Amino acid sequence: MAPMLERYVSPGKGNGLRATTKIRRGVLVTSAEPVAYCVSNKRETERPAAAGSMLHVYLAKRAWPGHKTECRCLCSLLPRHPTDSVRLAARLIFTLVSVRNLTQTNLHKEIYLDSMPEQKKEGLSELATMLELYMETEIPDLKQRMTSELPLSCREALSIIAKVTCNCFTISDGELQEIGVGLYPSLSLLNHDCRPNCVMVFNGTELQLRAVQDINPGEEEQHKSHQWKPNLLTSAGEEVPDENLYKLKITDMALDASVHLGRWEEALSFGLKTLPSYRLYYPDPHPVHGVQLMRVGKLQHHLGCIDDALESFKEAFKILKLTHGEGHPLIVDLMMKMEECRSEIDLQQPSN
């Protein structure tokens, strides 16, 4: 645990993290590597070029030693395909059984199966059955070994699949696109908030927690995931109509489709339409808004709107330097884009 944080019991929420000292916005609060991780199923089926992310290639290469074992499990389960949570749970079990170092693998969010809705419990039970079938080739005596070698809270397939599903994080690339899932036990202590004081970003598989607001000693560390949140409020305190959120999702999908088809003018038009909503749903500083500004800037630059592109990049930089830190690869790329724009603007100036 980072020296500026401490674990405590948050009333009504369970375990939590809080600051032990004053933390300024933009500071890297803590970081962690995953206990276990895997590339998402949908990325496994994409060619690296189609994935559009070198991080996908990096993650796949780092996951390769574990994939040799995983490949045999995948073949044994065909024609069925395990979910990401099943594959991640299997990787965790392989790690625990082979390394037997349990000190850093405690999953902090407790799962109370007795109080869980029956429909959800049935779904988790199906995943647990798939997990047992998936691992049967590599560990025929799985139940016996889980009973004798795993922590007391992880000795049943249903329990471990429930904990993994609740505690896992989506690993994203620089543009916040999903590329994998991982377990970061210490950061599972964090609680969510629609107005967070921290955000999470990834540098490779390393998960970084950065303060986006000043945090006082004793204040709870809260973050906001990249998922859409319901019941949002406007600056006037009124609830945002759901249809606005759906329109934003559709417009963002139209932006992605236009980029895929090479219709750059349409893509820029859709991108510009999303920015007011991104400011509303993700108040600054938030990486989602910063990344969207960077995407719009890239489209403006591609279409020759250099002055507009530079302004978009500047706005993105104000946000992302706080959420990612100035040494992050995304920031390095953004600074290069700004320098390119400045150089092109200088070249357009008439010489004396």
Automatic annotation (TrEMBL):
This is SET and MYND domain containing 3. InterPro entries: H3K4_H4K5_MeTrfase, SET_dom, SET_dom_sf, TPR-like_helical_dom_sf. Residues 3-226 form the SET domain. GO terms for cellular component: nucleus. Gene3D superfamilies: 1.10.220.160, 6.10.140.2220, SET domain, Tetratricopeptide repeat domain.
